[in-house]
Amino acid sequence: MAEDFDVPLDETTIYHADASCCAEAMFHDYTTAYSEFLRDPDGFWNNIASDLQWFAPWDTVLDWKFPFARWFVNAKLNITHNCLDRHVSNHRRNKVAVYWRGEGGRERILTYDHLYNDVMQFANGLKSLGVSRGDRVCIYMPTVPEQVVAMLACARIGAIHSLVFAGYGAAALNQRITGAQAKVVITADASVRRGKSIPLKPIVEEALIHAPTVEHVIVLRTQSPPVSLLPETEIDYYELMDASPKGCPPEEMDAEDPLFILYTSGTTGAPKGIVHTCGGYMVGAYYTCKYILNITDNDVYWCTADPGWITGHTYGIYGPLLVGATIFMTEITPDYPDPGIWWKLIEEYGINIFYTAPTAIRMFMKVGEEWPDKYDLSSLRILASVGEPLNPEAFVWFYEHIGKNRCPIVDTWWQTETGMHMVTTLVGEPMKPGYAGKAIPGVVADVVDREGRPVPPGQGGFLAIREPWPAMMRTIYNDEERYRKYWKNGEKPYYTTSDLAVRDHDGYIMILGRSDDLIIVSGHNIGSAEVESALVSHHAVAEAAAIGKPDPLKGNIVKVFVILREGFEPSDKLTHDLKYHVRQTLGPISVPAELDYVTALPKTRSGKIMRRVLRAQELGMDPGDISTLEE
Ligand code: PRX
After folding, report:
1. Cα separation of 161 and 128, whole Å?
2. Do 292 and 416 have their domain in common?
3. How much distance in Å is there from the Cα of 95 to the middle of ligand 1?
4. Global confidence as pTM
5. The domain that contains 610 carries what CATH number?
6. How many domains does the chain have?
7. Which contiguous run of DSSP H or E holds residue 175?
8. What is the pLDDT of residues 273-303, one digit of tens each?
9. CA of 211 to the centre of ligand 1 (A)
């Protein structure tokens, strides 16, 4: 990575959303809110946390012993009490909690009371299988209401859920199940995608071959005739639930007890099990849904992320339920049966807040505004984006054609590790296309050089977070050393995000991309090391290197360079086989779009592949310092 690079700060048109869309904004203005936070950070978080219900209060807001933080020390709570009981016991009992739409017009509606009862009954089902506080439960399911019930049921009894996106392949699933030492796996027979049903259970069966900790598999059966189950280990989702008693009091959790583990790809080695805790995560999710996404009681809110990703956790489920919102969720992809389907759903359900990803916006741009123009989108009040930089062209298109020059766009920068939004533009503040915005009140962000010194506006650097925040990850499951690496203790300590950024003269932050070997494809993190090891596990491959290559639609695509073993020759058939092998191992999202056969790879003298050199070569750029390159 080049250091000390200047970034030309072009003139930016500043956008102002219509006041009618910003009327519900919780902060009066950024400067006042931010200075109030800086004046008394503990007081700031204390006030927010006090909106929620706790079984016992905290002794101190924050106990910070670099790099380990404890938030809301000694407080007791259960997040499901705040997501469910708190609403059911007041005016939200019969409010719609979840609208779900399946393909072919199938619909399910769950009120808060309905969700509450299902969660408790399923929680009792988990208990009957011997699941208790602290046990890990892996959830590998499509986007259906039962997935939400399964997550909340774990949280109800203090079991730690670990969701795995249902697009992952068997090897990736196995790695995540064994990494978390899961006792139970909850899955479905199949998921539905673009009119086809895609079997999930065979993937689970393969993933369980070497997963000795798993005692039971709970299967949601949706197909006819129903798939058969192994009597000793497999059990039907609804048979388990129906055989269980109703009513299940929430387990009293310590604020610092883990709530969930979520695996995210790293640049090297196995994926990282990011650990989030009950108290701080709850406060961060609640705060940002209320103050950043600005969800109010009358809103119907749609976050398009799958619950298998962090966005689905914080902004698909926990956060909106904490604020008592009506959530819309769907298994429907943006292009099936046609690219108007999402706009049709916005019209039908009167969606007010729509949170999606730049890759989807760019896909919609490509197919043209005639699709959204067919539908009435006037219910929309706020638009939001996450996962990768929202490039200015996509911002402007989203603003004009979806928001109709009225709605604010909240471009939220954050990570699986941060648990909650960190940098964005508050509703009602001036928006600059291409810039995510400023650190939100509660967060201290900086752009720094390699030594951790702040760099001036217009100079590129690393995005850093200076102070702990409640929803920060507490550790990496079974790998404290890897956690410690995120925090640097220079003159002033800081959390390293591994993102490159630049700040303008008004303090707005533009995210420029990753500084490491993580490849972000359509907003999903792909570790170059994972793709390489999947390729090397094929008998024809001696060595492989994976890089991200910019792509106008997906942000990046995966490109790989492969050295074949003796006796194998490049061919279209082999290329197809290798891509298929990656698909089977890691899942469709990690499949390389481009594959080149090479006879050598650029390496350091110690044998590390210099992906930076490959990337520069691919893009026709200067490779930078190559003094460590092997002859
Ligand atoms: O590179 C940044 C990019 O996504 C990374 C985090 O990925 P993940 O942990 O999967 O979480 C994604 C959802 C929060 C970041 O390090 N990223 C995320 N949001 C943005 C972004 N890049 C630019 N702008 C964003 N709004």
Report:
1. 17
2. yes
3. 33
4. 0.94
5. 3.30.300.30
6. 3
7. helix 170-180
8. 999 999 999 999 999 999 999 999 999 999 9
9. 31
